[in-house]
Design brief:
The structure is a homodimer.
Chain A lengths: L4 H18 L1 H9 L3 H24 L9 H19 L1 H5 L6 H12 L15 H31 L14 H4 L3 H25 L4 H12 L17 H14 L5 H6 L3 H6 L1 H23 L6 H16 L14 H13 L12 H19 L8 E2 L2 E2 L2 H25 L6 H12 L20 H15 L3 H4 L4 H4 L4
Antiparallel strand pairs in A: 1-2
Helix pairs in contact in A: 1-3, 1-4, 2-3, 2-7, 4-6, 4-7, 6-7, 6-20, 7-9, 7-10, 9-10, 9-11, 10-11, 11-15, 14-15, 14-16, 15-16, 17-18, 18-19, 18-20, 19-20
């Protein structure tokens, strides 16, 4: 047996039970707003899930200590796929997203903190479903942090470093000794940022419901909004500032917050990835603001800066909120946003994409390789935070970036069978792979993903999962070697 | 002194003299067609070049044996840039391309065998200039083969393998002992293919002039035509077949023709790069033909195949001839052509792009890296033609591909300042970097590069040179280290 089926089965039971529990807040929300058919839809989803979940969990006897690498991959992939498959059910039962494939896309987009939607009119959705839709971002955001920092090492994959999520940055094991304890601290940080943002938005006059929706979207770097025009709906500088700061904080490596908690400011601010993140975002903000100003898109440099700051942070953190229809911006600004979609935020944050640390390592690798052309016998090692990066890590990073670009090209090729223009096609794949949300042209910030065929909707859902689970987790499952016990 | 200025100076003299000589056939052509102002333009270019060239060559005393790696880079870059700068002069003097920057672009595009043009109406050009324009393809094609296989090793860069042009394929040194002798054989093969194609086209009823233009364009994988509609002008299946075969043969590693000359068919057909080349082109042909047929672009599968074969080979070999306005094709077909632009042809051929061998090595590297996820302790080496590829070569290839993608992104970002749509912008850079010629949208096969600003025209010329000289040769010249003697 190449897989520990019993343990996987038991874990499926646990996931189903937890998911049923996580639907309860949305159920309460629909009770609160007297949305009867949504209440029914949730009960029809939650009860069978609870029954099945508890039966499976109770009856299957499994030894979790015997889990191997292969099992870990399957579990990670199943965890996200199953949650999305089940989370999609209330949308279908309530009749608001009748096509199950569309509902699956919408939920994958939620859990992967992408924020791409197939809904043409979000505002017609009942509050219970809007809450659930945005709450999946929040669950997904917390999930990915635990996935990268707690689950994988707990499954014995620490040495393996599957995802190469934090190849050289500070890792949690070095700061706190026990994983269960560190998970708790991570939960607390995540929940604190969440509560703080809700509070700040409410203080500015936002309704509690809207404050929660926008907070889930920003802390999870997801981007689902309850308005068709996203954050532009409010046209409120204070809200934009709060949300920008929250998105930016969510794009930082969460382990760095340990340093903040202990007031080790020097370690915090000297982190190479954080500095590069700041540098990249600032450069984007400045270039876009100048480009918008010189192109007379906005009346003043101040206004240009306002839109540039929000949009750069939103795209760089792979959130996808918008305060402007950036698809109408000049090509140079759009191209910068496009590049930001690829780079993404910091490792071990809720953001996605290639990640700053990997971009940094590739950049240093290239710089060294150019030196080697002139000095073939020189030995130059790559250092991050004054520590050398092992050659295994470097090649892991290179693999990742190549695979990322490969998935982008193959995805674009497959999606192009739907015969929309290349910009729509390529930006849809880039945006879904980077878990951003909006793209350009027909998938621009004021439009949606309903244009695609069912096959393409599934492809895009798959691409979101591939991006969220750091490529290898999903791609491995499609190799012969994975299923061949002899190799 | 970090550079051997005297030797470089003397080489400049030699280049100028040779270039003057290479303009003579075009001069003869304009005499033949009684194009007086073109004759004058050529004399006004050739005479000063001969005078200066001979003076420099005679007066500068230089020791070529003391040439170092740095000198080699400078010489390679100068050779192409200077040839283009001088080759542009007749266009300006004759008044047919009054803007020198445009003329420079047109000539760089010729020598780099790109075939991108700033001319809206090619057919208005006198024959002498049309001949010169296409002849630069032929010179460039021969130049690049010698550059990769004879010049660099002669300059002592054999061990260095600057360009990593033939990282694992058969290399010329292994087959023939002396470089001067091997250069001669290469000349002969190149000239034989040229003469054969001219003959075959004439046998089909093409005029001698047209036959020469089209042959220069295909053997050099350049793509300049003397008609606005390129090869579509003839609408002749026989011509298309001859040109397709010639482009395809020019995209093969020229050293493989040694095997053909010696009738070592087994070695020829078992070459990994050649097989992958066949496979990639065949796959592209088939997919595009089916896509065109299913989209009802053409009446029959036969007709779809006809256009698919020509266009796939033309783009894959980075030639750029067209028999159809492929910009009107469905997105899937366009995306395949876009990917072919990046891959390019075989190493040590006249084609450009990333090259098949590098694509193959990256592909094998990625495949191995996926295996390593499951078997961390396994040692797997990459083999091409049953011989292991050294890790230095693999990392050289990885650098190259990253740099290629980097140049593509940075180039697109800079070009986007002209504010044309992203498809125009990105495809212009991809096409120039891969030395293809046409792109999509505003730089599609029936349009031209005259839309861009002077700064962008220079940028695109630079990108063509960077692509042609295999990135490092040019990029190194822009590093601090290159000009710093202490490092």
């Amino acid at each position: 047996m190449i897989l520990n089926y019993k343990a996987i089965m038991k874990l499926i039971g646990i996931i189903i039970t937890i998911m049923a529990g996580l639907m309860l807040p949305s159920l309460l929300c629909s009770y609160f707003y007297n949305e009867t058919n949504v209440v029914i839809a949730f009960w029809f989803t939650i009860i069978p899930m609870l029954v099945f979940g508890i039966i499976i969990t109770r009856t299957v006897k499994a030894d979790f200590n015997s889990l191997k690498i292969r099992d870990g991959y399957i579990i990670a992939a199943l965890c996200w796929t199953l949650s999305s498959a089940l989370g999609a059910v209330p949308f279908v039962i309530s009749g608001y997203i009748p096509n199950y494939i569309d509902a699956f896309f919408e939920t994958v987009s939620g859990f992967t903190t992408t924020g791409a939607s197939i809904l043409a009119n979000v505002e017609s959705l009942p509050k219970g479903l809007l809450f659930w839709r945005s709450f999946t971002h929040w669950i997904g955001g917390m999930g990915i942090i635990l996935f990268a920092m707690a689950l994988l090492p707990a499954l014995g994959m620490r040495g393996q470093r599957i995802a190469m999520a934090e190849p050289a940055g500070p890792t949690i094991e070095k700061i706190t000794p026990k994983i269960s304890q560190s998970s708790k601290i991570l939960y607390l940080i995540y929940i604190s940022i969440t509560l703080l943002e809700i509070l700040l938005l409410e203080l500015g006059g936002m309704s509690t419901f809207d404050a929660m929706i926008n907070t889930f979207g920003s802390v999870g770097t997801g981007g689902y909004s309850n308005y068709n025009s996203s954050i532009a709906h409010y046209n409120n500088l204070y809200f934009e500032m709060v949300i920008t700061v929250s998105m930016f904080l969510s794009g930082i490596n969460f382990t760095l917050y340990y340093f903040v908690l202990r007031r080790h400011w020097k370690e915090f601010f000297s982190d190479r990835e954080l500095r590069s993140y700041l540098l990249i975002v600032s450069a984007a903000v400045l270039l876009i603001a100048l480009n918008l100003w010189f192109s007379n898109c906005y009346d003043s440099l101040g206004e240009s800066l306002r839109y540039s700051v929000f949009q750069s942070v939103s795209i760089a953190t792979t959130t996808g909120f918008s305060t402007a229809n950036f698809d109408l911006w000049p090509t140079f600004s759009k191209m910068i946003l496009f590049v930001l979609m690829f780079i993404g935020g910091c490792s071990s944050s809720t953001s996605s994409g290639i990640k700053i640390i990997r971009t940094l390592i590739v950049f240093k690798y290239l710089k060294n390789s150019i030196s080697l052309r002139l000095h073939p016998r020189a030995v130059i090692s790559i250092k991050i935070n004054e520590r050398p990066v092992s050659s295994d890590t470097v090649s892991g990073v290179i693999n990742f970036v190549f695979l990322y670009i490969g998935v982008f090209f193959i995805g674009t090729l497959l999606l192009s069978l739907d015969n929309f223009d290349l910009i729509t096609t390529a930006s849809a794949i880039a945006s879904c792979l980077g878990n951003v949300g909006p793209g350009f042209n027909l998938v621009g910030p004021e439009l949606n993903y309903s244009i695609f065929s069912n096959a393409s909707t599934l492809l895009l859902s798959f691409v979101m999962l591939v991006g969220r689970l750091e490529l290898f987790t999903i791609i491995l499952l499609f190799t012969k070697q994975f299923w061949n016990p002899d190799r």
